[in-house]
Amino acid sequence: MFNSMTTPNTLIIHKLIAEAKEQDAKSGALLTFVQSKTSELHNIIQLPSSQPEQALKQFITQYIEHAPLFLEALNDLMLEANIYDQGGVFITIAEDFFISPPVLVKEHSGLVALLDEAYLAHRIIEEINDRVSLKCGTPLCPTDMSISNIIVHTLLGDEFANQLDLAVHYSIEHLFKEDGIICSPHCSQYLQEHKDNQWAEVLTKWPSLSGDTSIDLNIKSWLL
User: Fold this and answer.
1) Distance between CA 108 and CA 99 in Å, rounded?
2) Is-contact 131 178, C-beta < 8 A?
């Protein structure tokens, strides 16, 4: 069962999400957004034949709700690995994306407004994982957000999503220090221990988004 430490900033994010859900329940903005996207989705995204709009709406809601949960779990992981002093800045950046969104974030309301911020947060986690995995052969945290992030990238549109990706890339390039995080003896030991047991203990602390959705990717059509 997922149980992690709620930080002051993630508490604010949870509140923002709860308020957005209440607002959306009254306005129906998320369903309107989904309806506007369903017919124009890239054929890479395969929606279920039964209630496709509801499936996409549920996916978006879970994607947003899981962002602060992932940040809380990552916060705990960095504390356990004794690398929070080096890596905590990325959690702060992801939290700030929610609390004080960058100017480039589009103006929306309800949950649709938080989809941009959630994408930024999930992309930061994905980028950190990719860099640690490339260096160490194992990710820093046991979650693969690549498919979910591709789906949301498609929903946001290439032009806008690419701008958000650049914001993430800029943050990572200027602040990620391999020598500080990856070469830390505490981090190396932590990664090796969890790699040996296939992350069995840590996985119990992480919510799974990829396993909760009926949406899939048609990778073949993406490559054609």
Assistant:
1) 15
2) yes
Contact 44, 217 (CB under 8 A): yes
Amino acid at 153: H
In whole angstroms, what is the distance from residue 6 CA to residue 94 CA?
15
Q: How far apart (Å, rounded) are the C-alpha atoms in residues 29 and 11? A: 24
Tally of residues, the chain: 224
| Contact (CB, 8 A) for 152 and 217 | no
Stretch (H or E) spanning 95: helix 84-99
Residue 105 has a pLDDT of 62
Cα–Cα distance measured from residue 194 to residue 191, given in angstroms and rounded to the nearest whole number = 5
pLDDT digits (tens, 9 = 90+) for 183-205: 566 666 776 766 655 445 555 65
Mean pLDDT of 176-181: 58
**Helix orientation angle between 110-136 and 29-38, rounded to the nearest 10 degrees:** 60
